[in-house]
Structure formats: structure tokens, C-alpha cells
Amino acid sequence: MSEHIxxxxxxxxxxxxxxxxxxxxxxxxxxxxxxxxxxIALAIASLKATLVVLYFMHARYSPKRTHMVIIAAVxxxxxxxALTLSDYVTRDRDVAANTPMSQMLGS
Amino acid sequence: MHRTGELYGQFETLEQQKESAALGMWVFLSTxxxxxGGLFMTYTLNRHYYGVAFGVGSNTLDLKLGGANTVVLIxxxxxxxxxxxASHVGKRKATTSFLxxxxxxxxxxxxxxVIEYKQKFDHHLIPGYHFQIDYRxxxxxxxxxxxxxxxxxxxLSKAFAxxxxxxxxxxxxxxxxxxxxxxxxxxxxxxxxxxxWLIRQSLLGRFTPTYNTPVxxxxxxxxxxxxxxxxxxxxxxxxxxxx
Lengths: 107, 243
Prior knowledge:
heterodimer; A: about 110 residues; mainly alpha; 4 helices; about 65% helix; B: about 240 residues; elongated
């Protein structure tokens, strides 16, 4: 079989990187960066997820059709998030004040 | 039951058989991405609208417990990956030991979650009729740090000034907190059940360097559940820590 056996050294290295990134995300949360707090939190989480997928889940050593499924999963999720948000964030309705749509339109 | 390492009729080679299993597992995991995705979508919208309430809700969570749990869960992913390695190189005892370590760490995670949920019950933070976001500030326990309670009161009064409907909106945060961590915990419980089965199979000596597909497939599932937590941790615990 052509399968790749990942040595324990790699797993331990990935684990340590994940620990460092966890510490980094907690540290970054205590600094007020305004809107960038969430950007940094998600960037670090995505980096961690990528490490898990590539090494713990062996995606790096997997055939191309496995890559296709992974990319499709991320793409479908992106479609759901992007299309739903493109609707909600372009609405004028003041949701926080619970103003009904009819009132906003003045009817 | 199937005999281990046997080539089924519909496959040409053992390698093809194993790759098919992995592909099927990845397809299942991609449906799981969308299953959890709906909750993440709901979270994003509500946080966008009720950011103040979400910040207040997030700050009631115990960062020490959440952080410790993150370490425990990532460590369990390491032991799971190590058991896959051990089964590949034919170390039977090590395979079993790493699987047991994974189960112990997974159970520890769920135990900490129980402690966290219990705190929320005690502080009236379960969505419903008795939900009260300032319950702890109004009814501090004798062992609560008075400074911490003062800080919480101040935070709450500022938040109420910004969002008079804070109590209702904080319930949305806690509904999502329990929904998302609950669904995640359910996946952990299912994973723990599968680990018990794997440990039994491993003790019976079913896994060899040529046949270890179940260890790998359940490993994929376990790592996926770890990834969900990697996103849940900053999104639920770290919204508004800098205030």
C-alpha cells in the first residue's frame, strides 16, 4: 500500500503548534482591536483547523478526490454564509430596536 | 461480522477499499460541516444584531474551564492520532493505550462541561421563564469575590443602558451557547461510544498494519469534533474579554 505513515514527531509538533495558537487567541482577546478582534480570532481558529485537517486527518497525504470533498464542504458553507449575510446586512430594518418592517416603510 | 483485512468483492485492491472508506467518511463529515454550519450562521446574525448582550453573556463563562477543556480536547486529538500511528506500525498495546487515553480525555472534557452547565443553572442563565442575566450580581454566593461582583454590576448597568432589552437578547446568546455546545457534546458522547467499541476490538487484536480502517475512520470523526470546538471556543468564550 502506498499509504503514508505519519511519524509521532509530526503529531507532537502539530500538537505544540495548536497549544501556542490557543494561547495566542486568548491573549489577542484581551487586547481591544475593535472589529479586528473577531477577524484575528477566526484567522487563528482557521489556521488551527487547517493544521488538524492536513496532519491529524492526513489530508496532506490523501488522494485528490479527498481534497475535492474537503474543498466542497468549505465552499458550500461559504455559500450559505455569504448568501444569507448578503441578505441580512443589506436590510435597513433596525433589528436591535425591534422596529417592525411595516413601520420602517412608513405604511 | 466481517473478518478483518478481508478484500470485499466490489473492490480491486485493499488500498482501493480503504480509500473508499476514507472518501465516504469525508463525505459524511462534509454534511456535518453544514449541520453545524446552520448554528454558526444563526450565531453570526444574532451576534451582529445583539453584540452587547452577546458580550455580556460571553463574559459570564469561565475562561479557565473553557481554556482547560480546549487543551484537553486537542490533547485527545493527539492521542487519537497516535493510536492511528500505533495501529499502522503494528504496536497493539500502544494502540489500545492511546485509545483508552483518548476516551479518558474525552470523558474529562464532558465532565468539565457538566460543571460549567451546573454553574449556569445556579446563576439562572438557562433560557426560559426564570432567566435573569443579572441574577448572580443581585444574589452573590458567600464565596464570590466582592470585587468581581462589583465589576459585573458595573458591566451590566452599562450594558442595560445600551440595550434595554438585554435580558431577552442575552437569552439568545445562551440558547446558542447551549445549542452549540450541546450538539458538540452529543457528538463527543457518540465518539466516546465508538471509542469503547474500538478499544474492545483492539484488545481482541483485530487491528494490524494491513487492517486498521476503523481506527482511522473514527479518528477522522474525532478530529472533526475537535475542529468544531476550535471554532466554538473563541466564538463563545472570547467575544468581549478586553472590556
